[in-house]
Amino acid sequence: MNSIKHDYEPAKPEDIVKDALCLNCHYSAEELAEMIETTQARVTKALGAIDARIQAAEAAASSGKVAADKLDLVQKAKARVAFIRNDFSDGVHNPHFAAKLINEANSYLDQFDKALGKTTNTAAFDLSDLSVYSQAQTSSLGNRHWDMLERTIFNPEDPDQDGCIKCHSAVAIVDDPNAKVADFLAAGQKYCYEELDDAPAGQSPFLYTTAEVDGKYLKNRIEGITCRVCHVFGEDGNIGLRRTEEQTCGLCHGRNFRWDRGSGKHVELAFMRGQGAPELGIADMPSSKYAMGFACQSCHFMDTSKHDFEAATPEQIAANSQCSPCHSAKEIGNRIAKIQKDVSSALAKLNPRLEKALAYVEKNPKNTKANDLYAQAKAGVTFVENDFSNGVHNPDFATMLLERSAKLLTQFEAEFK
Q1: Which domain holds residue 207?
Q2: What pLDDT does residue 363 have?
């Protein structure tokens, strides 16, 4: 780790996290130490179990219970165990390769057991939960990002797919802003290119066409929102952010709320900024944390190795040097719980009132005033709901919007029985 270290011992976690190259992925010595210790403990336990299986297999072979040529399977398993042990790091030098060798060894021993008349299917050995790469694939929010294109965007009956791809494919975000859905399809696949407003009775409202050749991005068809959407390798070999901190998340989560339509998806950054509407008398109301310089990463990435995108827990917040001067885990936990309880309660009261108001405007579509009152009451509720934090991103803004919606509904109810 430095040019005068000649004891050849591995660097300590606390030294590793001081190195600029390592800080790309590792934030704390504790996190790194846990990763190393967990890897070594799991690998050592797995190898011990394989040793016992090898001994039992050799005993079975020596007693003549299985043909001698089946010992080749045991030798293949032993070779893989030897490769891991002769590296002397208990898997740390290459965890995923160690896992691969362990799985191969168990597979050969399963085949040996089959020759003995046993049915053995050893569970796969996995270390993937210890890497930032896998966090983005295995966590609840991370998985929704990783394969979003495959699970929720690729819909052959959606003529607006090209627009969806602009945010849900790394190809369109990073490489080719002009990518179209056909670029991701195999020859022969049908897809929708237009929806008819007034389709004849019995006719599908969708018009289809068929991809004639494999799309130029076929191999990226299910790429989704991968690492390279946010990260880039610098000329120095270090991993950095492709954009500024705010725009790393804000590229997709920074869309403006459409006050004129009362709609908008991925408006979390707009909610933190307290995006009002001067033409409607709604002043901007940035959250206190946003005004202090906090960004999405401040709470969703409490350290640089956290890639599950989940919000930080109260304990993590209180342990952060930026937060600890003002917040304890208990205090912040209670505060978050109260904000979300109050907002959820307010929404639960407003939504039934909105449903009744909607029933009225649907029966009276030419009543402009009723439509406008309903639309604005609904807009405030929609903005809060589409932020998906139950008010935590901007508590004062959430309270103001919901109180405004309540007043508009009261006025609506007084004028339109």
Answers
A1: 140-231
A2: 94
Name the domain count of the chain: 3
Q: Is the pLDDT of residue 138 over 80?
A: no
Residues 133 and 20: their CA atoms lie apart, in Å, by 20
For the stretch 277-320, pLDDT in tens is 999 999 999 999 999 988 888 888 776 666 788 888 898 888 88
Q: Distance (Å, rounded) from C-alpha 307 to C-alpha 309?
A: 5
Q: What is the pLDDT of residues 149-168, one digit of tens each?
A: 766 666 777 787 887 888 88
Looking at the fold, whether 291 and 396 belong to one and the same domain comes out as yes
Count of helix runs (H) and strand runs (E) in the chain: 18, 4
CA 373/CA 313 separation, integer angstroms: 39
Q: Report the C-alpha gap between 52 and 126 in whole angstroms.
A: 20
Q: What's the helix, strand, coil split of the chain in %, to 5? A: 55, 5, 40
Q: 259: Cβ–Cβ under 8 A, 6 or more apart, which residues?
A: 277, 279, 280, 282, 379
Global pTM reads: 0.67
Does residue 199 register a pLDDT over 80?
no
Same domain, 98 and 166: no
pLDDT given at position 156:
75
Query: Which CATH number characterizes residue 269's domain?
Result: 1.20.140.10
Cα 344 to chain centroid distance, Å, stands at 24
C-alpha of 77 from chain center? 37
The Cα 402–Cα 77 span in angstroms is 64
Which residues in 119-229 belong to E strands, given as ranges?
A: 190-195, 206-210
Tell me the Cα Rg of the chain.
29
Residue 277 has φ and ψ, to the nearest 5°, of: -145, 95
